[in-house]
Amino acid sequence: MFESDDDPELVRQAVPFGLKLQEGLLTESPRHRGLLLSLASGFTQYAYAFVQADAVEMEDKDATAAKALRDRARRLFLRARDYGLRGLELKYPEFSKDPLAALPLTTERDVPLLYWTAAAWGAAIADAKDRPDIVADVGKMAAMMDRALELNETFEHGAIHAFLINYEMARPGVKPAEAQARARQHFERAVALGAGKQAGPFVAYAEAVCVQQQHRTEFARLLEQALAIDAYAVPESRLANLVAQRRARWLLGRMDELFVE
User: Fold this and answer.
1) CATH class of the domain defined by 153-261
2) Domain 1-149 class?
3) Where are the domains of the chain?
4) Structure pTM?
5) What's the per-residue H, E or C state across the chain?
């Protein structure tokens, strides 16, 4: 509904009303898989683009306010995850007991729910260092995203690959050199599937890999590439591109803090 909008601030104000409306509709139709998917994706995108992003940008100015926003984002991500799991359980009751055992039963038609459920779960885990009960589910989240990739790597112009750029750098049990190589492969595939018109993969690789490896020149080059993308070229990606480009500009402004000469 909002993907093609060119005014992120307008969307920021409108989305909560839409999400609460959908939650009201869900109470009347609790087994509506389409509503559950819409809520999983909607809460995930709202929490990432507006709540978590504000927390990150506020960190240096007001640590207490930033923490409050991070906590709120985590709650929203978990809310999204729970809606996604409910949607999967409608078709595969096994998910409520053992998601890992149920994953082989899923098909390509389940990829949207698999992706948004795992994306929300992963975002919550990434910001839950003080919550071992949440971090303990990382294996389930990763298996879900890997299954989505296996079923349809082209989903949403390579969105699964874009997500995995970040995750590979933190995937348990993977050596640093292998993690970087895998992140690079996902980056290149995401760019190819998005025909070079998605800013997200460039920002994700710059932030997840270049900062960790202290590759300042490549960091700047990738973010400039993200900013050079025409956000209006792909209508269904317009809002996502504008949000990613805002992140790119903010990261470029922090280069001296992120890189040690």
Assistant:
1) mainly alpha
2) mainly alpha
3) 1-149, 153-261
4) 0.95
5) CCCCCCCHHHHHHHHHHHHHHHHHHHHHCCCCHHHHHHHHHHHHHHHHHHHHHHHHHHCCCCHHHHHHHHHHHHHHHHHHHHHHHHHHHHHCHHHHCCHHHHHHHCCHHHHHHHHHHHHHHHHHHHCCCCCHHHHCCHHHHHHHHHHHHHHCCCHHHHHHHHHHHHHHCCCCCCCHHHHHHHHHHHHHHHHHHCCCCCCHHHHHHHHHHHHHHCCHHHHHHHHHHHHHCCCCCCHHHHHHHHHHHHHHHHHHCCHHHHCCC
Query: What is the C-alpha separation between 3 and 138, in angstroms, rounded?
Result: 28
Asked if 1-149 and 153-261 have one fold, the answer is: yes
User: pLDDT truncated to tens, each residue of the chain (261 aa)?
Assistant: 567 767 888 888 889 999 999 999 999 999 999 999 999 999 999 999 999 998 988 888 899 999 999 999 999 999 999 999 999 999 999 887 889 999 999 999 999 999 999 999 999 999 888 889 999 999 999 999 999 999 999 999 999 999 999 999 999 889 999 999 999 999 999 999 999 999 999 999 999 999 999 999 999 999 999 999 999 888 999 999 999 999 999 999 999 999 987
Torsion angle, CA of 251/161/66/46, rounded to 10 degrees?
Answer: 110
